[in-house]
Design brief:
2 copies of one chain form a homodimer. Helix content of chain A is 38%, strand content 19%. Chain A has 13 helices and 14 strands. A 7-stranded parallel beta sheet of chain A has the order 5-2-1-9-10-13-14, sandwiched between helices. A 3-stranded antiparallel beta sheet of chain A has the order 7-6-8. In chain A, a hairpin with a 2-residue loop joins strand 3 and strand 4.
Chain lengths: 320, 320
């Protein structure tokens, strides 16, 4: 069964790690957000691609969520002592190897798609990982700081450097309108028997992908086969800052609010919510969506596999 | 007292570390070989500049000689698992920070001279460190492998990657003839009261510097104030592969052979040899050189300071 997944970073990684417990990874294509990509110390860093790669490879740090298990940060600590630009972004020593390898491949003419495949291969990842696009697309956050000054921040500046302390007025995906999907991405959606929207931040992780022309239409064309997993449980994100970003798009911070955000654009046919959100089921079904409930807290691969099994059932139930 | 030093890597680093025990580092300008510089993983690596910086900063690894104390090699080990080009060159995680910082500065328009000064400043090095040139100069080794095939190797390929196992036919300094000395380097030699030729590999470390137009003439003009320390003790180098390279230039592998190699070009007025080489003293004096003997094995900073004191005395004794 061919499966396509649309993914952000950590939440997607955990979910996909569960998915490959129940399906053959060779059947899976994952389309990953690159709006968070950033040049750090001259290196091309792709946080979401790396999170998904590390989770699928089984080398992710489960406690921290991002980065690799058994990681050290000696180079970054030294760069911080140098007061090097960008050293607020913590890169582990093992992780650094990935960025050096990717940057070198791209300097030699490889596109991000090719570099991503090469890295995945090195980690023994059998699923096909695709960046959403080979074009540079950057998620920028328009914000206001405590002094009332307006700020135009790279997403990582907003999130990592400034700890999400600013009031967000809006999010833009610079370059998206003139970008095109990575080779094979639209085809993967068109030909999949199940399309899964991972439990990722709708504004910061999924919307950048949808902003690249082609993806929204490709999902809408297959909407009955598209099932999403709510990243919001009990009115709050499990991690990250979706609670701060959703209101800027007029979205209620709830499993029902996010369902409506996707359903309103005709992108999904099914929606998996956590058992604690039972009360929201009628509102979600009223959107015309099929709904299933389970414990969506992915404490380990087994729990993630359960969530993936439910999402897959919901997508496949969408018929042909 | 203003002092200039002409330096390669590890031997120079140890010696200069001794020198700053007995003179103010702010009086010292060090001109360092960059013929070994190499791009690794897209980063500008300057092995000799880094060795000198780390030794002067007191963060060098005394046992290993090169690189930093308390170093780890996690990024390199990962890159080796990736089979990344150039990963035969072992870069420590702390050391990596230096290369990232340098490469970023240079990508932003800084020349190697400026990047070197910025790095030295970050390490609290008060001596002025200058690359021999801001131009790309590369030491290439013409060699023949065991199968009889001719090879054209970067110096680091010859030394680190292939472990100096090939027969060397000659050494070339590509780009040197059209390079010019780094700003301030010739002036430092012209105005110094003492000029010290560090105990570095004559062929691989000092000759690249001399191949850049201007340096040989600048030293010759001050030759009575130039004192060198023999890198050869008892007929062998203390470390490195000078014993394999010296014969290719027709130089005897001895303290007298290297003295003659420099004196024949009129570059030095004084020569420090190890006590074990007493028998060579008449031959060296016959070259017209002043000679002093001491224990030149620099087992610690104190020992290095003793060697530096002797070299300095010999240089200053050259009069005005």
């Amino acid at each position: 069964m061919k499966i396509a997944a649309v993914a952000g970073g950590v939440g997607a990684g955990k979910f996909l790690r569960g998915l490959i417990q129940i399906v053959s990874p060779t059947e899976l294509t994952v389309i990953v957000n690159t709006g968070d990509d950033m040049e750090v110390h001259g290196l091309h860093v792709s946080p979401d691609l790396d999170s998904v790669t590390y989770w699928l490879a089984g080398v992710a740090d489960r406690e921290r969520g991002w980065g690799r298990a058994d990681e050290t940060f000696r180079a970054t600590e030294q760069l911080r002592e140098f007061h090097a630009d960008g050293s607020w972004f913590g890169i582990g020593d093992l992780d650094l190897a990935t960025h050096l390898f990717r940057t070198r491949l791209m300097a030699a003419g490889e596109r991000l798609t090719g570099a991503t495949a090469a890295i995945a291969e090195r980690f023994g990842v059998e699923a096909r990982l695709l960046p959403m696009t080979d074009y540079p697309v950057t998620t920028r956050v328009d914000a206001v700081d405590q002094a009332g000054d307006t700020l135009d921040l790279h997403f990582q500046e907003y999130w990592v450097k400034r700890g999400a302390r600013d009031d967000v007025k809006g999010v833009r995906f610079v370059g998206a309108a003139t970008a095109s999907p990575a080779p094979g991405a639209l085809e993967a959606i068109a030909s999949a028997e199940a399309i899964l929207l991972c439990p990722s931040n709708p504004i910061a992780s999924i919307d950048p992908i949808l902003a690249v022309p082609g993806f929204a239409a490709a999902l809408a064309a297959r909407r009955e086969r598209v099932a999403g997993v709510s990243p919001i449980v009990g009115g709050a994100p499990l991690r990250g800052m979706a609670d701060k970003l959703l209101p800027t798009a007029g979205v209620e911070v709830s499993a029902a609010g996010v369902a409506a955000y996707y359903a309103g654009r005709g992108l999904i046919g099914g929606w998996v919510i956590d058992e604690t959100d039972t009360a929201l089921e009628p509102r979600i079904e009223a959107l015309g969506l099929r709904t299933l409930m389970t414990d969506t807290i992915m404490v380990d691969d087994e729990a993630a596999a359960r969530v993936a099994r439910v999402a897959l059932a919901l997508a496949v139930a969408g018929g042909s």
